[in-house]
Write a structure and sequence with these properties.
single chain, alpha+beta, 9 helices, 10 strands
Length: 331
């Protein structure tokens, strides 16, 4: 891999897997979700429970901040979660990563996918089509749009709409989904930063025949989604580790990203430099201003903004943390 020296880890075949799961993956590129600290008995099956059971789906529904969405966002979400073809809670991931970097990458998928492109591990393309909206094409028959409906320091809700056209099915597969992404920042006894990551997905397919097919192969689709989720969160952890060791390597990769604004590259460089300074115990040089992250949170508009519903800037770094218990630290 040409960028191995940058300290980034990913596998060459983990981003676009088998054609059966392409549509699901394209709808799920919005990354990691995480679970705020809650007692294990409050979550059906415990904190590590995953799958598509009714109990888990009910728990996921209770956690959706529908009352905090715009009217349009609430209508989109309700239509899907009330008529879901496939629900899945993916296995929780615990990654070692800087909390501010985690949120920044989550809210800038164009940077992540462009980095993958520079590293030569994906043919996925992404284009920003609005302040909080993106169009994605995997180059192999799947394309779709993703829209952030709600963002805060610990919860992201994303609406996705896409289509798969290929030899696997006689006609295009159209689908929509709601992704509920929750985050919890924790620290271990050595004050290392970890993120507990969990993703709930509600997928609605528009054809009865496809519904039967999808449910038949739900286990295989789920395992591929789990793999992609694990690898993507692992990539975020690798970026954080690279920032600690040699942020100039990240700057070099970001500089080659064609579809990322100079402002995004600058903020990415600022965050990675701050991570390095923190690890080295260095302070910010005099006269150097750090880039301030937005501190507000709330609903954001979907594909078609509604009059009177202003877009709310988000991007709050996760600033509070609880201590990680020994059993929760990844091996």
């Amino acid at each position: 891999m040409p960028w191995k020296g940058a300290g980034l880890r990913t596998s060459s075949d983990n981003l676009i897997s088998k054609s059966v799961a392409r549509a699901f993956f394209a709808l799920s590129l919005a990354f990691a979700a995480a679970l705020p600290a809650r007692a294990a008995e409050q979550v059906p099956g415990g904190l590590n429970a995953h799958g598509g059971s009714r109990e888990l789906q009910a728990d996921a529904l209770r956690s959706l901040p529908l009352n905090k969405l715009t009217a349009q966002g609430r209508a989109l979400a309700t239509t899907i979660v009330n008529d879901t073809t496939i629900f899945r809670r993916l296995p929780q991931q615990v990654i070692e990563a800087d909390a501010e970097l985690y949120v920044f990458l989550l809210e800038h998928p164009e940077l992540v996918i462009n980095m993958w492109e520079v590293m030569g591990v994906t043919k996925v393309t992404i284009k920003k089509i609005g302040p909080t909206s993106y169009h994605i094409d995997d180059g192999q028959g799947t394309s779709g749009d993703i829209h952030f409906l709600y963002r805060s320091q610990s919860h992201h809700v994303v609406f996705c709409e896409g289509v798969y056209t290929g030899t696997l099915m006689p006609r295009p597969i159209k689908g929509r989904c709601i992704l509920s992404l929750r985050s919890a920042h924790v620290r271990d006894a050595d004050d290392r930063s970890y993120l507990q990551c969990r993703l709930d997905s509600f997928v609605k397919l528009d054809s009865f025949g496809v519904e039967v097919f999808a449910k038949t192969f739900q286990s295989m689709i789920g395992s591929i989604a789990d793999h992609n989720f694990r690898e993507t969160t692992g990539f975020v952890s690798s970026v954080s580790a690279a920032a600690e060791a040699a942020p100039e390597n990240l700057h070099r990769i970001a500089s080659k990203c064609r579809n990322v604004t100079p402002e995004t590259k600058q903020e990415f460089a600022s965050i990675s430099n701050r991570i390095y300074r923190d690890v080295m115990g260095m302070s910010l040089p005099k006269g150097t201003a750090a880039i301030a992250r937005p501190v507000s949170a709330g609903p954001v508009n979907a594909a078609v903004p509604l009059a009177g519903e202003a877009n709310t800037p988000i991007g709050t770094p996760i600033t509070t943390a609880r201590r990680l218990q020994p059993a929760e630290v990844p091996n």
